[in-house]
């Protein structure tokens, strides 16, 4: 077998929480002397600096990004499992701002705090758009997996959206049932994020309701806003207000 497809769930505590991400892997004829080729199903969305719109995955383990030592592919030591775990742990992270190598110098510096928040919020908004795209056009052979995942997790996605909208919880501070995991110490999500989320949430409720997701009836009130949002508000851009 030299062709594989990986379905990955975004980890709790990250902007990608409950998202579903697909990667196609091809093992070249000289594998394992060389790493697998990996293509990401982007749907034209730039969720992360390491995930290109064209489907490129920038990771030193794949020889698509600079690295050294254990960061690069080793024919004797490296595995496909290591590739998959690295994508989830090093790419789909809690703070995607630092996946851009030009931002590494700001790690831990107070002046970067606002940018960290905005990048996490943008990643969250794009992950929600990705959910809608997947429900419309799931990868071939994985249609039922996509529906099953969002039937089970849809209500928690919507609960998280409510927590952002009404309680102003920062992105990345919710557990797997969308309850707050920490006291935010005065931190809140931005007004621009809440505005974009409010515009898109009715469409997300509609998408989850269509597949019969558990608990969606508790969010029927958001469907009343669908008429007002029919003009096509998107999540690709938003006001940069704090």
TrEMBL record:
Q: Which InterPro entries match?
A: UBC, UBQ-conjugating_enzyme/RWD
Is the Transferase keyword given for this protein? yes
Q: Which SMART domains match?
A: UBCc
Taken from the record, one Pfam family name reads UQ_con
Q: What PROSITE patterns does the database record attribute to this sequence? A: UBC_2
Highest rank taxon of the organism: Eukaryota
Please state every residue range assigned to the domain named UBC core. Answer: 1-132
Keywords, ordered alphabetically:
Transferase, Ubl conjugation pathway
A GO term, aspect molecular function: ubiquitin conjugating enzyme activity
Q: What name has this protein been given in UniProt?
A: UBC core domain-containing protein
């Amino acid at each position: 077998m030299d062709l594989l497809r990986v379905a990955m769930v975004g980890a709790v505590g990250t902007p990608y929480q409950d998202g579903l991400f697909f990667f196609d892997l091809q093992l070249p004829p000289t594998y394992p002397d060389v790493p697998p080729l990996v293509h990401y199903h982007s749907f034209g969305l730039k969720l992360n600096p390491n995930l290109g719109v064209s489907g490129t995955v920038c990771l030193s383990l794949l020889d698509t990004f600079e690295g050294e030592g254990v960061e690069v592919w080793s024919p004797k030591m490296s595995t496909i499992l290591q590739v998959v775990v690295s994508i989830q742990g090093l790419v789909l992270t809690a703070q995607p701002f630092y996946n851009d190598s030009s931002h590494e110098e700001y790690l831990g510096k107070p002046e970067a705090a606002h940018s960290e928040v905005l990048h996490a919020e943008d990643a969250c908004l794009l992950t929600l758009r990705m959910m809608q795209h997947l429900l419309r056009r799931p990868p071939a052979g994985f249609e039922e997996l996509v529906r099953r995942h969002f039937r089970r997790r849809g209500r928690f996605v919507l609960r998280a959206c409510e927590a952002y909208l009404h309680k102003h919880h920062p992105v990345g501070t919710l557990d797997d049932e969308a309850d707050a995991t920490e006291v935010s110490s005065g931190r809140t999500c931005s007004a621009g994020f809440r505005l974009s989320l409010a515009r898109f949430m009715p469409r997300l409720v509609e998408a989850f309701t269509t597949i019969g997701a558990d608990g969606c009836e508790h969010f029927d009130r958001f469907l009343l806003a669908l008429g007002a949002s029919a003009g096509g508000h998107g999540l690709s851009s938003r006001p940069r207000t704090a």
